[in-house]
Amino acid sequence: MTTQRTLLLPTSVPVVVVGAGYAGLSAALELADAGTACLVVESADRVGGRAFTEQRDTVIDHGGQWVGPTQHHLLALAERFGCPTFHTHETGWHLERWSDGTLARYTGAAPDEAAGIAEYWQVARRLDELAATIDVEDPTSSPHLEEWDSVTVRSWFDRTVISPDARRRLDLAVQGVWSTEARDISVFHLLFYIASAGSFEQLMETDGCAQERRFHRGAQSPALAVAEQLGDAVRTRVTVLAVEQDDNGVEVHTDAGTVRAQRVIVATPPPATARIRFGPPLPVDRARWIQRSTMGDVAKVHVVYEAPFWRAEGLSGVATLYGEGSVGVVFDNSPDDASIGVLVAFIYGDRLRSWSALDREARRQHVLETLTRLYGDRAGAPRDYVEKNWPEDAYARGGYAANPAPGAWAEHGARGWRRPVGRIHWAGSETASRWYGYIDGAISSGKRAAREVLDEEVPS
What we know:
Elements: E1 15-18, H1 22-33, E2 38-42, E3 53-55, E4 59-61, E5 66-67, H2 72-80, E6 85-87, E7 93-97, E8 103-106, H3 117-131, H4 145-149, H5 153-160, H6 164-178, H7 187-197, H8 200-204, E9 213-215, H9 221-230, E10 234-236, E11 240-246, E12 249-254, E13 257-261, E14 263-266, H10 270-274, E15 277-279, H11 284-291, E16 293-295, E17 298-305, H12 309-312, E18 315-321, E19 329-332, E20 341-348, H13 349-356, H14 360-375, E21 384-389, E22 402-404, H15 408-416, E23 424-426, H16 439-455
Parallel strand pairs: 1-2, 1-14, 2-10, 7-18, 11-15, 14-23
Antiparallel strand pairs: 3-4, 5-9, 6-9, 7-8, 11-12, 12-13, 16-22, 17-20, 17-21, 18-19, 19-20
């Protein structure tokens, strides 16, 4: 979406929405559908937030890209605006490179006889059992809140998982879904996240799960369609500096002027929210929650070829890699018609910190050497190579989502997670009960925040 900064901001509007990611756009759409006018302001020069599609030789999704069958809000939005999807390619042999360098071929979710795999699945079932005890609408009501939020996932794995190989598999699972290391999140947050998705398998797998489908025109396409419908109500390249509220309303101060409103929906990631000055200051629990919510560390690297040559060799393009290399997971990200070949490599956590310290050519060589070991010499000669290192993004400062630090749920979750502060309401994937951390969760959070506003009978 091109910037609309050249248009003057209105001096007043019933509702201001801060942030034009999926949360902010869905909030604005919900308000518009109910006949309530709003203004959406976004610091970046585009809409979509952590969903960012670029048209190069083919469609490249730098951010969120998948949709699963239980992600009803995203599917409904895509259907409303005519954004078709297609099945993620996973036909053929998957590859697993183990920590000793051995390479195995397999089909299904994992190699049947691989090291540590039996206990890995036992732990997955146990996590599902524990997650089922958490009420995702009221997570801090869990009787085990303090116990589980006081223990890191790393400590829990070390204490309860016997096989070092199973722990190695679980570590990569945590990196792949939470884009962080197991030492950085609590058992409670891990369990809440699993509960919000429905199961451990929903987070990890493709068919029938979170990675089942992709968008023909990229995952940003529904967001672009919503912004197009909202028209001049969406203004990019407008940065909110302060939000001040009193008994009569709210003033939203931006670098393009001040707007008076009755209500504000803040739909930005925690790092962006932290840069806004609030008057009066936010309650301690809300402020601490923002401060202690840390974005994940992940980079997506797309490598483009003339064709998906690995398919002719019976390979799916899916790979998991354990050990010292930079890349953790690889997927086939080619378009549905296979007119061009694309592999996408994910780099997480500690691996990202080491890899991102290298210069660009060294980073490129690390990735291409990994792909060459997996798919042969042709993988070392791409026609295009593009990186998106999300911690370096000026607005998100990480991805996929923010993870509350151990102890944050127990200490500040009840009052700090998403409870409105006066006339200020909170949206964003990190405030979702279902599909926390995903586009679907962002959409549902925007709808919830809009309903909170509408329940206050804001004038249209």
